[in-house]
Amino acid sequence: MEFEALKIRLINVKERIKKAAVDCGRDPESVRLVVASKTIPEDTVREAIKAGVKILGESYIQEARDKINILSSYPVSWHFIGHLQSNKAKYAVKLFDMIHTVDSLKLAKELNKQAKKINKIQKILIQVNISMESTKSGIYEEDAQKLIKEISLFEHVSVKGLMTMPPFFNNSEIVGPYFLALRNLQDKIRNEAIKNINMQELSMGMTGDFEVAIKEGATFVRIGTAIFGERS
Ligand SMILES: *Cc1c(COP(=O)(O)O)cnc(C)c1O
User: Does residue 174 surpass a pLDDT of 90?
Assistant: First the structure.
């Protein structure tokens, strides 16, 4: 993609984020853009960084390793937004500032072990399967609180909030209740005041529905297509 076109798309997305925040009385600074760069070649990602992108979200460990290595001189933050297998935890803790997709005690335990080895406290979000679709990753809402309590005992992972992927994510009309449900769950867990848990983040909203997500309280929106075009 041509640099100018990429820049214009990025500016456009940032404007839409700002407008969505202002329209519902939120501080636009409270919503951060995670640019979803899976399958996007490193040259294009470099252009995005030069155009001002600060957070990149990758979905596959091997692909991310190569890209992050090549682009290591840039002061950007890398987040993991794909499905993470426990046997890849050792790579994930080295590569990512935040992992959005923790949904089991087994995975959290492995991340804790691997983060300890490199003397790091790994920031994570808990992925919640709000819509309870069997094909989807994420813990069910009713089990989230228990999982977070268990994870709170680990010294090398720190839960910062929740993440979800609603169904029908290209139909912004009907996703609102799923985002609202995630925010209500956040409130509920906050009220528990679990030691070592700071539930400030809500990672929700993609190209098709990020404005709705912002209205419902998103602090991270994960956007790829609106910036890079359709993935091939
Ligand atoms: C690819 C991806 C996105 C970005 O989706 P777009 O529709 O291209 O904006 C967001 N979140 C996750 C988890 C993804 O895998």
Answer: no
Residues with CB under 6 A from ligand 1: 36, 38, 59, 81, 165, 206-208, 222-226
Q: What is the DSSP letter of 149?
A: H
Domains and CATH numbers, the chain: 3-228 (3.20.20.10)
Q: Which of 75, 116, 114 is nearest to 91 (CA)?
A: 114
Strands (E) across 53-199 are located at 55-58, 77-80, 98-102, 122-127, 157-163
Give the nearest ligand 1 atom to 210 CA: 9
Is the CB of residue 100 less than 8 Å from the CB of residue 126? no
Straight-line distance from the first to the last Cα atom of the chain, in angstroms, rounded to the nearest whole number:
13
pTM beyond 0.90, yes or no: yes
